[in-house]
Amino acid sequence: MFPPVALLGLGLGLPPHVLSQEEAALLTTRIFGDRLAGFPQFERVFANTGIARRHCARPADWYAATHGWSDRMGAYRQAAEALFVQAATAALADAGAAPAEVDCVVVSSSSGFAVPSLEAQLAEAMGFRPDIERLPMFGLGCAGGVAGLATAARLAAPPGRTVLFVTMELCSLAFRQDDGSRANLVATALFGDGAAACVLRGGAEERAFAVIDGAGQHLFPRSRDIMGWRIDDGGFGIVLSAALPQFLQTHLRPALSRLLAQCSAEEERIGRFICHPGGTRVLAALEEVLRLETGSLDHERAVLADHGNMSAPTVLFVLDRARRAGLPDRAALLALGPGFAANLITMRRGPR
After folding, report:
1. Which letter, b or e, does each residue of 129-157 get, where b requires 16 or more Cβ atoms within 10 Å of its Cβ?
2. What is the pLDDT of residues 130-165, one digit of tens each?
3. Is 142 a catalytic residue?
4. Taking a C-beta distance cutoff of 8 angstroms, is the pair 288, 249 a contact?
5. Nearest to 132 by CA among 117, 119, 114
6. Which position among 56, 104, 142, 171 bears the catalytic label?
7. 3-state class of 295 per DSSP?
């Protein structure tokens, strides 16, 4: 574990293009409708996701064309850099901190890559010091918002040390015209793009809107085929098991008990679980596991409706809503991602 760490600022970022769920369904029908015999039965998935709209890195016509690695990673770098600046600048302003105060930057993104990594590409433009410590993270997927924030909190534990955490995902860029699998079609109905950033500092609780005091991770055995990327010549291909909600109903409760024990936290004292909204079926499974009434995860459903599943940043969009509504004395962030893994952060409300 680590000493309590102040969460000083939170900022969000969204790309400029908005795609309604109706437009997404029409686009997918245009691409797959005449090619897949069972596609008409699949169309109802778009109506059952609870999603009204999502933001995308590119306009709709881009997704109707064929793209290889070069196109996809070029689009990723351009959009990811803009989102990094947008979210990080908002988080620093919220914290009342200058870029030159940042001692370390942690970046989590699993939907693209750049070398040098994004924070190095943007260091001068952002105004970071030349001696800044950098930690880019890849492969955490939907869990990256919680797992990356936990890593940032550990690095911020020494008093006076300031860490910037940034996560951005551009899931739409992984859309595959050549993949008629159920997983690809479900991903088309679910995923959007976005970014979030947090500023953390050790020993600054008087300025915090929340104080992180615990973190844990549980890796489920024999579960690697539940979620992830398949990588081939065309780009990323989604791996997403339809058995995920059932898996959570069966296996998450004992894992949650172990995670709370890692955080030295008592479940009955957690006033609000702030969860990554993977989809409506996942939210229903989480409410069952957490012993909540149906509909209790209201901020999660609102974020899902407005933005879709943005992967790693999504849980921080939920935290932003929970913060504006008023955090309880004790809260916990929960996200699930490739591995298959569950990640938890516990926090208490700060004085700010």
Report:
1. eeebeebbbeebbbbbbbbbbbbbbbbbb
2. 999 999 999 999 999 999 999 999 999 999 999 999
3. yes
4. yes
5. 119
6. 142
7. coil
The number of CA neighbours under 13 Å toward the Cβ of 199 is 28
Q: What's the full length of the chain, in residues?
A: 352
CB 326 within 8 A of CB 350: no
What are the tokens at 64?
Answer: 């109707």
- The residue with tokens 């700010």 is 352
Helices 314-325, 298-307: inter-axial angle, 10-degree rounding: 130
d(CA 325, CA 320): 9
What 3-state DSSP class applies to 193?
strand
Cβ of 183: how many Cβ atoms within 10 Å?
Answer: 16
Identify whether the C-beta of residue 172 lies closer than 8 Å to the C-beta of residue 112: no
pLDDT (mean) for 208-232: 90
Report yes or no: 136 and 118 within 8 Å, Cβ to Cβ.
yes
Hey, is 80 helix, strand or coil? helix
Number of Cα atoms under 13 Å in the Cβ half of residue 112: 29
Q: Which two tokens stand for residue 129?
A: 């010091």
Taking the mean position of all CA atoms in its chain, how far away is CA 67?
Answer: 25
Q: 256 φ, ψ to 5°? A: -60, -40
Residue-range domains of the chain with CATH: 5-207 (3.40.47.10), 210-349 (3.40.47.10)
Q: What is the pTM of this model?
A: 0.95
